[in-house]
Amino acid sequence: MKQQIVITLTLFLLISCKSLPSLPQTLGEANSAYTYIPIDPLPVFEEPGRSCKEVENELAFKDLLESLPDQAVRLAIAQLNGSASGSFGPASIGYENNSYQVVLDYISVDATQLPVYLKRVVLSGPRAGERVPLYDELPNTPTRYVVKGAPRINPYASSDTEYIRNENDGELVVFPVYIGVGLRLTATVDVIEGNVNLSSLASIAAEAQAEKLTGSLTVQTLGITGNNVSTSLPLPSEINQSTVQNAILSLGSIKAVLYDEENTKITPRVVGIYNPVGGGQEVVNGIISVLAENPIVWYRPCK
Predict the structure, then answer these.
(1) pLDDT (tens digit, 9 = 90+) per residue, 141-172?
(2) Residues 281 and 87 sit within 8 Å (Cβ to Cβ)
(3) CA pair distance 90, 106, nearest whole angstrom
């Protein structure tokens, strides 16, 4: 059975990489121009979502994997230099003398809310320090974003609970945060010749084989550990057809032991966010800082 799971996942990833120009956008992404943003795993505090009944003096949570209802395989591409530095977006073409990061995630997650206060102020010129609306287009006006944590609520506490607004600290914006476990492949590349296709790991490996780019490949687990997991992780030193194939096979092996409770330990982590505002890496870094300073509470569902 485990072997069948490995083969199935491997074939799925290979087919996705080779035959699709890019993974399809969700309806929300297609209508907002913003997207899922993967981040390095961050800690999570667990609380019961409602008044869970006690069974043998323990709260009756659902099993962890049963509490993570959404699964997805997502591809995200970010430019690491230039004016769009660090911003994940829809671009899938890499240009000469630029650096990029391509992240392929398999995630099993639940979504929760992170309220923050967000201000956008003019950076320089006669209007320096002036606060401007978050969503206005200001092409000739350099601005910066200031992110500050807002009081959080238990969304299950009562139907009339509201977030606290504070106009002095900024507009109240609620960011969706993805909590769960998963597997991640990250390719960091430098384009050294012409334009290259970054829409899949297979195309990146082919471009590396043609010596159009150089880079490194990272295989990472998100909230998954254990002896079987550690022994399955490869040690890729470069990007080529062989290292990409070995990395995908290792992900299939790890996914096969995900439900092996005796040998695999899973811990919910913050694995990504959804940015409804824009603002690039400045806003994302602010959100990460808020989550690192005050870990988010996940109200795990009861049985």
Answers:
(1) 889 999 999 999 876 665 667 888 998 999 99
(2) yes
(3) 19
